[in-house]
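User: Hi! Is it possible to get a structure for several chains at once, not just one? Here's what I have:
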Amino acid sequence: MSASIGYFFVTIAITLAITFWAARRNTGRASFYAAEGRISGTQNGFAIAGDYMSAGTILGIVGLYTMVGVDVSLYFIAPLGGLCLGLAILVGPLRRMGKYTLGDVVQSRLRNPRTRVVLGACTITISLINLVAQMVGAGGLISIVFGLEFNLAVITVGALMTLYVAFGGMLAATWVQIIKAAVLVGAVVLLALLCIIKAGSLGELYTLGDRPQSSGRSLYEFGALNHGLFSSISLAVASVAGMMSMPHLLIRFFTVPDETQAKRSLLVGTLLIGGTMGLVFLVVSPASLAWVTGNPAYQDASGAVSGGSNMITLHLARELGGDVFFGVMSAVAFSTILAVVAGLTVAISSATSHDVFAALRNADSPMSERLEVGIFRLAALVTSAAAVGLAIVFQHENLTFLIVMGLNVAASTTFPLLMLAIYWRGLTAAGAVAAGVVGLVSSVGLIVLSPAFWVKVLGYPEAVFPSDYPALLCMPLAFAAAWLVSRLGARSGQVAESY
Amino acid sequence: MKRSDILRILLVCAILAPLVVIQTGPGAAPAWMNQRLAGVPLTVVATALWFLVMMSLTALFARQQTVADRISAARIAADGALADKKTGGQS
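Assistant: Yes, the chains can be modeled jointly so their relative placement is included. Here is the combined structure:
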């Protein structure tokens, strides 16, 4: 335990040192929003991998695997499809059209402040959902290592992330991500090696982990989630389209000097993500079945895994490498969470100050750089407070579900907005606003009415909407709203804005 | 959006489609997937292949884009040189 606490303090000291270094270099909005575009493609690739490989990757998804088995593969592979398509059709135009935020991309095409406000609101909602997921992971992790109350743990993380973002901005967030990604990849490789060494071979590992389930089915068989056709397709759509349009990942492409470096960064990021997640899926997850689930040493009085399913990876580290490796993995998981919350808070703060606040102000008097940075810092503080409150409400939710919720909203809002702004000449500002509002209201509304929220969180006996994944319905609705409103506007005399 | 972009979208969807279908419920996956290869379930082998295909596809798309960008840059440079030649270097 004392070793773990030591690693935690080392992690905090390193990240604060980076923040201090970045704070001295930050000169204005270009530094706070986009690290002045000085990050190289390879460095940004590591930062993208760091942004994507969140608490959900190494904590939540292993926990989910121990419940539903190989069905979790869709959560791994579909987002890779999203990154792949993002490289092919989105990154180039995005880098050409944007400067600091996604609002810039739509603004460069439509030149209307209302579209900025809508896209800013979508960015804030998506990033806040993700932020809550990370905070839930952080709270559980700190509770288990320090024995702190969950509430106190998330308040500590909230305070740290406010410091990182308010003083270090995008530059600090990027370097924290780069270092964390490198350490995370190394830790996962080491964990996987230890698993195979302990089992003797990969085949033996799968045999050890093949424990009989109450349903009589093996976790190595597909179909355990029993989603049905709608939810399966919708989950895939949310994962692919949502991954292509996650604001905290997309604003990373504004930190590199040009389009070529942006594409290179996505390639590097995808290879790192695919390789690491492949190891988590193929080795770490079955090892958790073999040595953690069902092991009395890691069960609480009720027979459930101690600390909840999100903590299974850390128990596995203790099983394989004792307290020292447990401490290292806990510190890696903690740094992962700190890095991702910093990235998400940058996305929210920049959308608030650069898109929403700037657009709501009188356009005739442009905002001074000092005021904009001040709003950015204030937004970081408010975001932290909101995330802490929401994390306390959602503390018992699985991290992966929360992250997929964010993907559903992204697929229904930022995805249609960006695709239409880039590829459809007929889009009008009114059409873009309609798409954003319809996508946001329908996706958030249906998530609230879904079994995961309506039944599990609010306690009602039956859900109003039968699926946890509404993207298949909401995304076409958003596209249809944009098309209809743009067409009606064109008929009534409004012409599409200049392309 | 170019035709090649639409083909890329269709290719990724076609690769993901079987994974989506076999997860719709128990029995949706073919029976042979429940066998093992050197102790490793074929479901896991298949998933590993999906990983590899998706990562290779990303590398392929990146390579194609690099080549396309180079051709585009060369064309722009050639057009510029041609314009210079026509205007006697005054463009």
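Residues 3-87 of chain B form one domain. Helices of chain B lie at 3-22, 42-87.

User: Great, thank you!
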